[in-house]
Amino acid sequence: TEACLSAIEEAGALNAYVHKTPESALEQARAADARIKAGDAPAMCGIPMGIKDLFCTRGVASQAASRILEGFRPEYESTVTGQLFDAGAVMLGKLNMDEFAMGSSNETSTYGNAVNPWRRGNDDAQLTPGGSSGGSAAAVAADLCLAATGTDTGGSIRQPAAFTGITGIKPTYGRCSRWGIVAFASSLDQAGPMTKDVRDAAIVLQAMCGHDPKDSTSADLPVPDFEAMLTGDIRGKTIGIPREYHMDGMPDEIEALWAKGREMLADAGAKIVDISLPHTKYALPAYYVIAPAEASSNLARYDGVRYGHRATLASGEGINDMYEKTRAEGFGPEVQRRVMVGTYVLSAGFYDAYYNRARKVRTLIKKDFEDVFAAGVDAILTPATPSAAFGLGEMKDADPVQMYLNDVFTVTVNLAGLPGVSVPAGLDKQGLPLGLQLIGRPWEEGDLLNTAYALE
Ligand code: GLN
Fold it and tell me: Which of 97, 108, 132, 413 for a ligand 1 pocket mutation test, highest count of atoms within 8 Å of Cβ?
């Protein structure tokens, strides 16, 4: 804990931590020492972690990187962080992210973006750590914690993991409780660990998941010992390569990485088969209807009355002015865009054409996966992202859809509620990390992590 705390001070320029909690970290670390001495030490005991700012942590600023939650200190602890602390984990502080987890570059954060510790060759230009869990990824990659929590609605654990050369898993929807995590799109959101390697991911995930009666979508299923399942033996497993993930204009390096992944799994004794997921091309548009729709509803609670920021009113202004001004000041441009898109697709007259249509497409996407799993495929291998980390500011003037294209390989997994893991799989010509994604059957995170282990 002390080593991490001093590393955090030295690496201030990465802007990974947005609220630091050194005193309580040292207190937690001393309590963990005592537990270890007493012989009562679960695997997480004394492990210094960073926590994404989306998690409510009791008495500690939990702002979802938004101005609208300025000054908000929850009275309660999210289930996931509570479980981690009960297991002895230490919280070093809260980590930077895109505002309300909306973004792929960390640039929508009210605190300014976190910075990727990696550079392109000898070029000093700063790169994005990805998003939305960009602070988590930067902190793990730069040794500012041993592990971090992330959340993933459309790729926010897997894309930043790929951009920073670390491992990140989004578990099956319902595996981790969403209670106490600021909601973005409730039918897609899942928490998961971001770690140095697959073994750490197995250990941290173990402590994060489990049934929670406070989240009605949390699954009442036993949690297997994920770490014990890491045998590295994947002989006889069938790995599907989805034809539709060969996107037009995909860089050769990404194709080459994917081919290398196939070879590694084949060498380890897996059977590689070509598969088709025919509705893949509709996933991104469906996601960017469903996620904003749910967000517009979830974000209605930020009204200047219940939490955080409240606008100052001029004399004669009333409650509607207060709502409008507060939301105009408190939400950044990307969040406002999502609220507007979401409100539009849910409005009478457009609901059937957009929202209901997107929900039907979602069912077809889910069925694509069910069909290949029913045909005997154990896991699906794809690239994690269509490129390596890009430069900060590079996408500033681009159409927002350009940014959304980052999620092309990851959103299908959230729409289908499946577990997906991104593992570092090599470097591009400029020396930047690239990730491969494995998608597994529902509730089979243990098998999925074991397949990922074979790629390490
Ligand atoms: N980049 C995607 C978005 O902006 C995914 C974000 C996430 O997974 N939280 O919606």
Answer: 132
Find, among 436, 448, 282, the residue nearest to 365 by Cα: 282
Cα–Cα distance between 429 and 441 in angstroms, integer? 33
Whether residue 292 has its Cβ less than 6 Å from ligand 1: no
Give the atom of ligand 1 at the shortest distance from the alpha carbon of 103: 4
Residue 417: which of 399, 440, 395 has the closest Cα? 440
456 residues of the chain, pLDDT tens digit each: 999 999 999 999 999 999 999 999 999 999 999 999 999 899 999 999 999 999 999 999 999 999 999 999 999 999 999 999 999 999 999 999 999 999 999 999 999 999 999 999 999 999 999 999 999 999 999 999 999 999 999 999 999 999 999 999 999 999 999 999 999 999 999 999 999 999 999 999 999 999 999 999 999 999 999 999 999 999 999 999 999 999 888 899 999 999 999 999 999 999 999 999 999 999 999 999 999 999 999 999 999 999 999 999 999 999 999 999 999 999 999 999 999 999 999 999 999 999 999 999 999 999 999 999 999 999 999 999 999 999 999 998 899 999 999 999 999 999 999 999 999 999 999 999 999 999 999 999 999 999 999 999
Instruction: Give yes or no: 271 in active site.
Output: no
Among 54, 55, 96, 104, which residue has the most ligand 1 atoms within 8 Å of its CB, making it the best to mutate?
104
Strands 190-195 vs 167-170: parallel, antiparallel or unpaired = antiparallel
Could you tell me the domains of the chain? 2-229 (3.90.1300.10)
**Catalytic residue check, 109:** no
78, 104, 109, 132: the active-site residue: 132
- Residue 89 and residue 50: Cα distance in Å, rounded? 10
Complex ipTM more than 0.90, yes or no: yes
For the chain, counts of helices (H) and of strands (E)? 14, 11
Set 78, 104, 105, 156: catalytic member:
156
Active site residue 156: yes
**Placement of tokens 């930067």 in the chain:** 138
